Amino acid sequence: MSRPDKAYPCHEEPADHVVEMAENRVLSSRSQTIADTLTRAIIDHRLVPGCKLGERELSEIFNVSRIVVRQALIRLADDGLAQIERNRGAFVAKPSMQEAMEIYDALTLVEQGVAAQLSDRLGPAGWAELRHHVERQRQAVAAGNHALADVLGQEFHTVFVRLSRNKVMQEIHAQLVRRTTLLRSLITADFDYCNLLDDHSRVVDLLEKGRLKQAMDLIDTHHRAVVRGYIMDREVFPEMTPAEALAPYLDGKTDGATVPVAPRKPANPSGNGGSTAHVHVHLPKINRAPTSRASTKKTNRGLPS
Amino acid sequence: MSRPDKAYPCHEEPADHVVEMAENRVLSSRSQTIADTLTRAIIDHRLVPGCKLGERELSEIFNVSRIVVRQALIRLADDGLAQIERNRGAFVAKPSMQEAMEIYDALTLVEQGVAAQLSDRLGPAGWAELRHHVERQRQAVAAGNHALADVLGQEFHTVFVRLSRNKVMQEIHAQLVRRTTLLRSLITADFDYCNLLDDHSRVVDLLEKGRLKQAMDLIDTHHRAVVRGYIMDREVFPEMTPAEALAPYLDGKTDGATVPVAPRKPANPSGNGGSTAHVHVHLPKINRAPTSRASTKKTNRGLPS
DNA sequence: AAATGTTGATTGGTATCCAATCTTGTGATT
DNA sequence: AATCACAAGATTGGATACCAATCAACATTT
User: Fold this and answer.
1) Buried (b) or exposed (e) across B193-207, using 16+ Cβ within 10 A?
2) CATH number reported for the structural domain that contains residue B212 in this entry
3) What would the pLDDT profile of A239-285 be if each residue is shown by its tens digit?
4) Is the C-beta of residue B27 closer than 7 Å to nucleic acid chain C?
């Protein structure tokens, strides 16, 4: 064992697989796929906070074994999107107001840091990309396309961070964004998009002029404005079973890598209209299918009022 | 069953378990414990990058089933400490130089953001705590206690982030610190501690005076100085089997005498010239003497955990 | 009616088995 | 002899069945 050449099974390759790992923290297949699908469903607000994610139920939905589901749930919990209680099961996370503020503070913090780095390092092409993005959102707002404006408003922050050219940071930021998206299931978003859009534009202006401190203050107030529009005391009621909520993502083959951002189902056989590309939870009331075998029993978990 | 209040299982509890979750995102027991142990072993450099983490082998070491080990490995991979290749297995991550720089950049970014927030919000007690910590490290350096100085130098960053009072951010930062610790298995740390200590002190000074931009620049150059001292082309050879590496962390039995971290003789093989001199692992000060119980019970205070 | 067992359901975990894939070693071919 | 191809072994990913612990709801008793 003291031989340096064959001391112990040591996997070594120069830089090939390292690169591909840097691109994506990929690993297995199914548990990751299922975790991605559940993440998608959560940030699409089809699975609302507090909703129980039973292992058996999910394993039947996805047609996999319970163990694969559990591995996926572990991922979700590590991402802060689910919460696992010992011997009780997994639930979609229901962050407290305190945690919501921490998430937004972390987001503020990250974007302030990105701003600081960009103010030093970003080249003209980067500034142009930011301005272009702001312009696109402005046009969407002008056209009255609220949905698109909303998506672009989110995307601005992602583009902003991507310009740091740091995949590690992008992953951290993406995780925070997912958690903020989860928060929207619990809050009433009621703020002025034009104000936020102006903020984006002004941040770019300030940064390009080197007025870093002011830009960072604006980022802070920007996020504070978002949080201020939030009210956490809203009660959310799951209106669908997980099976129904996840149905749009299971087109035939579970092999499909990742469902696109807008789960548009052109040929959805079952009625279930109105599920396309919804960002907010205004799902139609669904008459409970009497076919669900255990729906009568497992459904009733205390939800007062 | 059409009652809206009992629509579907919705887990709800006011705020109790939320708090405990924020404090501790732990879930099961064994897979988390094993993931923690592996993490500990990796950041202690007992498991070096590239080392294979076979499921069967680990399951025998920990006396658990393979599935539990796999769940732990998934956690490690999500944390960036391991790398899973399909049908090939898990290995301790071997970050590329590119990724190393990204990790340090992310760390810089986070700490710059923290600095920005602290410069606005931190009270006198917070500044005092920072100064006290710097002073402790200064005394350690003066006393020639390099090991303690190193630990304190690490800890400064953790304390710094903790003052933001944001658990989400703390967790992100802790993860980044773990990954930087992993990097030390691949690099030769060869920098001047006094300089870094001065940096800490000056950052506190600048921040308290409101000179945010300068403080952030200093944070940047601070981390760049650390990275500059790094050389990634070193080859690391596992000198222990995972069983040997993990033995000190297993319950009860601690044959402390037989497992020092760097048992490899500095008998630098004269062959090999100097090109890719795979000098033996000159572990910096972290190599504390494996006093029996101290190493058994995870000394979570020593390094950010 | 309140307190207290009892039972069912769900999770955490183990063992065993199987399929797919990767590695390795041997053998045939040029 | 060197190289290529193929087969055997090993390892991972996953499925299934099973057991123990725990929690929740129900039923019983005082």
Assistant:
1) beebbebbbebbbbb
2) 1.20.120.530
3) 677 777 666 677 644 333 334 333 333 333 333 333 322 232 222 33
4) yes
